[in-house]
Specification:
The chain has about 400 residues and is of the alpha+beta class. The chain has eleven helices and 14 strands. It has a three-stranded mixed β-sheet. Strands 5-4-14 form a three-stranded antiparallel β-sheet.
Length: about 400
């Protein structure tokens, strides 16, 4: 009798154990999403190990080869700027309306039609090649590889967003253009190699490695490719899309950005722009009628106190009796950022800016700072585009 009970107990334990194994296995299967499903779960953000290992090894031969800051941009550097910036020189509104189209696997998104705004030509490119052209133009050649991968995913996402939106106006029928003030910066391999020789070729190879290491990866929110805007530097925090352009997208919120705390990057984050009294009035005379009346007045009598936004940027400031947004002042004076302090001297005004660009989305210097601390490109993207998940084409 006891033997039978013992046998039954063993069988019951085996059944319970088998059921537990099945439950665990099923849960794992649900977490492991196939390429055909089109979307990875947000747990993929924490699965950085392995996916870029091979490309990272290839990167070791080219990392930090550009110690001369004059040649790490798409253009020779004539200031202390080291990163180009999507829409960094203007504050024109981008289309931040949510896209209604799902990722359509039947649509050809392995290639992209590109309008070269300098040459006035349209050409078809493999999507990864296009991404490499953007990464080369947008990020310093000695950036950590994970930062380059983050830039690659952002660039690919924005391109796919444009392709699916099918808005070809202004692009000569193409999906996207090479004007950084309208779409994304862009430089071809042969152009970059011609400019910088073997170093340029090596940097482009690294950018291509980043594109290949992230092949097909894009950012999604509510199953849609996001408007993955980015900029050179945020200082201490990014701006929300609503603050800058008025579009309220859940993933374009103000978040902390750590480049201001990296001593090696700090001199690229903070800058000064000095204007004599005559220079300042000349820049403002078209925007402020009668501004010349203040040419003999102390600055504090016609430049008022600033109001700050949620992200710490200047929301408004009164100059010559007229109220301006920080973005308007930035554009009028050619400042790097709308996050600025004003210092008055007897015959000049100094605008001390923090950050560079519109401030929305991923900060490129912030991505570099995170990558230097060992963060993966998944973590970088998750930090700057909160609430998004990784999808795959």
């Amino acid at each position: 009798m006891k033997g039978r009970r013992h046998t039954r107990l063993i069988m019951l334990i085996m059944i319970v154990f088998s059921a537990a194994v099945i439950v665990v296995y099923s849960a794992r299967e649900k977490q492991t999403v196939s390429r055909a499903d089109g979307i990875y779960s947000d747990t993929l953000y924490r699965r950085a190990a392995g996916i870029t290992a091979e490309a990272a090894v290839a990167h070791e031969d080219t990392d930090n080869i550009f110690t001369d800051q004059a040649v790490i941009n798409k253009e020779e550097n004539t200031s202390d700027t080291v990163i180009t910036d999507t829409q960094s020189n203007n504050d024109e509104a981008v289309d931040t309306s949510a896209k209604e189209k799902s990722v359509d696997n039947d649509k050809d998104i392995e290639t992209v039609m590109v309008f070269d705004h300098r040459l006035g030509t349209v050409s078809e490119m493999e999507l990864d090649e296009y991404v490499a052209c953007v990464v080369t133009a947008e990020m310093p050649g000695d950036s950590p590889f994970e930062a380059l991968c983050a830039q690659a995913v952002a660039a690919r996402t924005l391109a796919v967003n444009y392709i699916l939106a099918d808005k070809k106006d202004g692009h000569m029928g193409a999906d996207i253009c090479t004007d950084s003030g309208h779409c994304q910066s862009f430089v071809k391999r042969d152009e970059y190699t011609e400019r910088y020789g073997e170093k340029g070729s090596a940097v482009f190879d690294t950018a291509m490695n980043a594109a290949k290491a992230t092949t097909g990866l894009i950012l999604l929110y509510d199953d849609q490719p996001i408007v993955a805007v980015f900029h050179a530097s945020s200082g201490g925090a990014t701006a929300s899309g609503k603050e800058v352009w008025g579009g309220d997208l859940a993933y374009l919120k103000s978040v902390e950005s750590g480049e201001i705390y990296d001593e090696t990057l700090r001199d690229k984050v903070i800058s000064e722009a000095v204007f004599t009294r005559e220079e300042l009035i000349a820049k403002l005379e078209n925007a402020v009628p009668g501004i010349s009346e203040y040419k003999e007045s102390p600055f504090h009598l016609w430049i008022g106190e600033k109001e700050r936004s949620e992200s710490g940027r200047v929301a408004s400031v009164t100059i010559g009796g007229k109220k301006f947004s920080g973005s308007e002042v930035r554009k009028l004076l050619g400042l790097r950022s709308a996050d600025f302090e004003i210092r008055f001297d007897e015959d000049s005004v100094t605008f001390i800016t923090e950050g560079y660009g519109h401030g929305v989305g991923m900060s490129q210097l912030g991505a570099i700072a995170m990558a230097r601390k060992g963060e993966s490109f998944y973590s970088i993207l998750a930090a700057y585009y909160p609430g998004t998940v990784i999808g795959i084409l």
